[in-house]
Design a protein that fits this description.
The structure is a homodimer. Chain A is an all-alpha fold. Chain A contains nine helices and no strands. Helices cover 74% and strands 0% of the residues of chain A. At the A-B interface, helix 1, helix 6, helix 7, helix 8 and helix 9 of A face helix 1, helix 6, helix 7, helix 8 and helix 9 of B. Chains A, B: Pfam families: TetR_N.
Chain lengths: 189, 189
């Protein structure tokens, strides 16, 4: 993943990775016969580790209404960190690399589902309530967009201001009977 | 741009582009001395053309409250189309290519500003009103995130459902005195 962040997909050769990891080419090829297998295993491993870290960091957040702000900040950090950058290198490379694409498509679906489930858990919300699922999805898609906007230049000032507003909006969407009006649907209250 | 979409950044050589464009290498190098100059000019040209097309398509939308839905759909199509894919190839490649990065950073800022201005114009909203600027920004960042989610697999079903909800939310945010509650700020009404 460090190689992907520093050199990009095309600069990440298995030889460079083996040298950096301090393992022989033989050992590397034994465990990961292809570059696609190697990077897919790395994304899987680091995504799982990141999920554990996010749970630990979220557990340290104070309870109360400001907890949501802290969770959004943790997620925003994940979407602007090195793992996101490395994953984006792979996602873009996979468009034009059939072997990588075949390995990544099922992984993308799984990571997407787990990220969604983790966000629901960290926010402590009930997804069966109308609107909650969509609000969580929009938050993650928004954060992915903000991650891309941060690729070439430091977008943190704009991002902080935008997320400040989004947190209030998300809080309203997640609070029962406090969401925005839904034209065309009858509201019980 | 077609080369970028089909072959990615590393597969897009100036030789391949010259052959496809039907121009001599001499003529190409005369106008675009480097690959970075060539692709930057292409992004600039196509972004301007896309803005003209978006204005034309938006002008054909019916007036009334459903106009916002049509504008969001037009923008979503732009963020999942070939120009977005080509731009993303460049943005990611520029992370690890200093020459491309130097060329793209000012372009990214300009395209970002123009996309924002165009969205304000197409939605017919007044950006001096509180919350409007942030709502437009969030819409564009959300659409960028949805564009990335569509890279490797067709995400249109999920995107359509998510945007259905987002359109209602955006309409509420853009309608005076109908936005979500803003804790901690005094409201005049």
């Amino acid at each position: 993943m460090e190689c992907l962040v520093e050199h990009g997909w095309s600069g990440t050769t298995t030889t460079v990775v083996a040298a950096r990891a301090g393992v022989s080419r033989g050992a590397q090829l034994h465990h990961y016969p292809t570059k696609a297998a190697l990077v897919t295993a790395a994304v899987t491993h680091l995504t799982e580790r990141r999920a554990v870290e996010l749970r630990t960091e979220a557990a340290a957040l104070p309870a109360g209404p400001r907890r949501l702000d802290g969770v959004v900040d943790l997620l925003a950090a994940a979407f602007t960190g090195p793992l996101f950058v490395a994953a984006l290198e792979l996602w873009v490379a996979a468009r034009t690399d059939a072997e990588l694409r075949d390995a990544l498509v099922p992984l993308e679906a799984r990571v997407g589902r787990e990220m969604h489930r983790l966000t629901v858990e960290l926010l402590g919300v009930d997804e069966r309530r109308p609107g909650v699922r969509e609000a969580v999805q929009a938050t993650l898609d928004l954060l992915r967009g903000l991650g891309v906007a941060n690729l070439l230049s430091d977008d943190s000032t704009r991002r902080t201001a935008l997320l400040h507003t989004w947190k209030r909006q998300l809080a309203a969407l997640l609070t029962p009977d406090a969401g925005p009006p839904t034209p065309g649907s009858a509201r019980p209250h």
